[in-house]
Amino acid sequence: MGIFGKNHNKTGYWTQHAHLFKGDIYECSVCHNPAKKPYKNCPKCNARMKRSKYDPQWIDELEMLDAIFCD
Ligand SMILES: [Zn+2]
Protein backbone atom coordinates (compact mmCIF):
# COMPACT_ATOMS: atom_id res chain seq x y z
CA MET A 1 0.00 0.00 0.00
CA GLY A 2 1.71 3.24 1.04
CA ILE A 3 0.80 6.73 -0.08
CA PHE A 4 -0.22 5.70 -3.59
CA GLY A 5 -2.91 3.30 -2.41
CA LYS A 6 -3.98 0.07 -4.02
CA ASN A 7 -4.32 1.53 -7.50
CA HIS A 8 -0.67 2.50 -7.84
CA ASN A 9 0.25 -0.20 -10.37
CA LYS A 10 -2.89 -0.11 -12.42
CA THR A 11 -2.39 0.89 -16.05
CA GLY A 12 -4.85 1.42 -18.83
CA TYR A 13 -5.48 3.44 -21.93
CA TRP A 14 -8.01 5.89 -23.24
CA THR A 15 -10.36 4.94 -26.02
CA GLN A 16 -11.13 8.10 -27.94
CA HIS A 17 -14.73 8.17 -29.05
CA ALA A 18 -14.98 10.78 -31.76
CA HIS A 19 -18.45 12.01 -32.54
CA LEU A 20 -19.75 14.07 -35.42
CA PHE A 21 -22.04 16.37 -33.46
CA LYS A 22 -20.61 16.16 -29.95
CA GLY A 23 -17.15 16.63 -28.51
CA ASP A 24 -14.74 13.73 -28.25
CA ILE A 25 -14.98 11.49 -25.21
CA TYR A 26 -12.12 9.46 -23.79
CA GLU A 27 -13.13 6.26 -22.09
CA CYS A 28 -10.95 4.63 -19.43
CA SER A 29 -10.18 1.00 -20.29
CA VAL A 30 -10.09 0.10 -16.58
CA CYS A 31 -13.23 1.63 -15.08
CA HIS A 32 -14.94 2.91 -18.29
CA ASN A 33 -15.13 6.39 -16.86
CA PRO A 34 -15.76 8.91 -19.65
CA ALA A 35 -13.39 11.89 -19.57
CA LYS A 36 -13.23 14.99 -21.72
CA LYS A 37 -9.44 14.94 -21.98
CA PRO A 38 -6.86 12.11 -22.16
CA TYR A 39 -5.42 12.68 -18.69
CA LYS A 40 -2.15 11.01 -17.65
CA ASN A 41 -4.06 9.27 -14.90
CA CYS A 42 -7.71 8.40 -14.86
CA PRO A 43 -9.42 10.89 -12.51
CA LYS A 44 -11.74 8.16 -11.27
CA CYS A 45 -9.71 4.97 -10.79
CA ASN A 46 -6.24 6.60 -10.95
CA ALA A 47 -4.91 4.13 -13.51
CA ARG A 48 -1.80 5.25 -15.33
CA MET A 49 -2.57 5.72 -19.00
CA LYS A 50 -0.12 4.34 -21.51
CA ARG A 51 -1.69 5.34 -24.79
CA SER A 52 -4.99 6.12 -26.36
CA LYS A 53 -6.91 4.27 -28.99
CA TYR A 54 -8.83 6.08 -31.68
CA ASP A 55 -12.37 4.86 -32.13
CA PRO A 56 -13.98 7.00 -34.84
CA GLN A 57 -17.67 6.56 -34.22
CA TRP A 58 -18.47 9.34 -36.65
CA ILE A 59 -17.92 6.79 -39.45
CA ASP A 60 -20.93 4.87 -38.14
CA GLU A 61 -22.82 8.11 -37.75
CA LEU A 62 -22.00 9.07 -41.37
CA GLU A 63 -23.29 5.72 -42.55
CA MET A 64 -26.46 6.35 -40.61
CA LEU A 65 -26.84 9.71 -42.35
CA ASP A 66 -26.26 8.00 -45.70
CA ALA A 67 -29.02 5.55 -44.88
CA ILE A 68 -31.37 8.43 -44.08
CA PHE A 69 -30.60 10.55 -47.15
CA CYS A 70 -30.35 7.76 -49.70
CA ASP A 71 -33.64 6.21 -48.72
ZN1 LIG B 1 -10.48 4.72 -14.81
Care to count the β-strands?
Answer: 4
Mean pLDDT: 82
Q: How would you classify the helix and strand content by structural class?
A: alpha+beta
Kindly estimate the percentage of residues that lie in beta strands according to DSSP.
25-35%
Instruction: Measure the end-to-end span.
Output: 60 Å
Q: How many strands, what sense, and barrel or not for the largest sheet?
A: 4 strands, mixed
Radius of gyration: 16 Å
- Portion in helices: 10-25%
**Residue ranges: pLDDT <50 for 5 or more in a row?**
none
Morphology call: elongated
Strand order of the largest sheet: 3-2-1-4
Number of helices: 1
Order of helices and strands: EEEEH
Oligomeric status:
single chain
Counting structural domains, the number is 1
Ions, cofactors and other ligands present here are: zinc ion
Quick recap:
The protein is of the alpha+beta class. It has one helix and four strands, in the order E-E-E-E-H. The chain has one domain.
